[in-house]
Design brief:
The chain is mostly helical and 202 residues long. It has helices at residues 3-12, 14-38, 46-65, 85-107, 111-144, 151-171, 175-201.
Length: 202
């Protein structure tokens, strides 16, 4: 089942919708924490700080949107307040592991260089996904006449993708080859996640 077929069912059920928003918030927060973990304490740039801050803001914004589904829903990221909790938590971590393995094997990177390259490729793949996921979600919200909206996230994610491409161009002349590999890994993990979502929703 495709995500756009699952979303109307999620949006129609307030408690389920709250858990979906909480899951997206968890994923944005995980991404922000990963960006911060990859930072070099000395050479961290304005763009990296901006990106980490915006991902944290997205996590907060999505958490705030939960209030539109009802009071007191999903106070934490505990499993019972998420959809497909195991897969949702594992998805970004697994992508990080797979991309890091690829960079070690194909380019022979290690240490600080490996962390930074993994940040670039993982973030690029996630931004490509976000550019697809949030507009599909917004469209489903509009169709359902929901009070929830993610338009501000859509605008920022578009800017993030552009910033990632600029950083990747500086990283490698064959950046697109590595980026495509990361997107391929992400697509497989994302499809597994959608399968788990559909099981829970149906």
């Amino acid at each position: 089942m495709e995500l756009n077929q699952i979303l109307p069912t999620i949006i129609a059920n307030n408690k389920l919708h709250a858990r979906w928003l909480n899951t997206l918030s968890l994923m944005e927060n995980t991404g922000a924490r990963k960006i911060s973990a990859s930072e070099d304490p000395v050479t961290v740039t304005y763009i990296i700080l901006k990106h980490a801050a915006e991902e944290h803001r997205h996590a907060f914004y999505l958490k705030k949107q939960i209030e539109k589904s009802g009071e007191g829903l999903c106070p934490t990221y505990a499993d019972e307040y998420l959809v497909a909790p195991a897969c949702s938590k594992y998805y970004l971590n697994m992508l990080d592991v797979e991309v890091s393995r690829y960079l070690k094997k194909e380019i022979g990177l290690s240490g600080r260089e490996l962390r930074f390259a993994a940040y670039l490729l993982v973030t690029y793949a996630i931004e490509v996904r976000a550019d697809e996921l949030y507009p599909v979600y917004q469209e489903a919200l509009d169709k359902a006449g929901s009070k929830v909206n993610v338009k501000s996230i859509i605008l920022e994610e578009e800017g993030h993708l552009e910033e990632m491409i600029n950083q990747l161009k500086n990283f490698s002349p064959v950046w697109q080859l590595h980026a495509d590999k990361a997107v391929e890994m992400e697509s497989r993990l994302f499809n597994q996640w959608v399968v788990e979502l559909s099981k829970e929703v149906s």
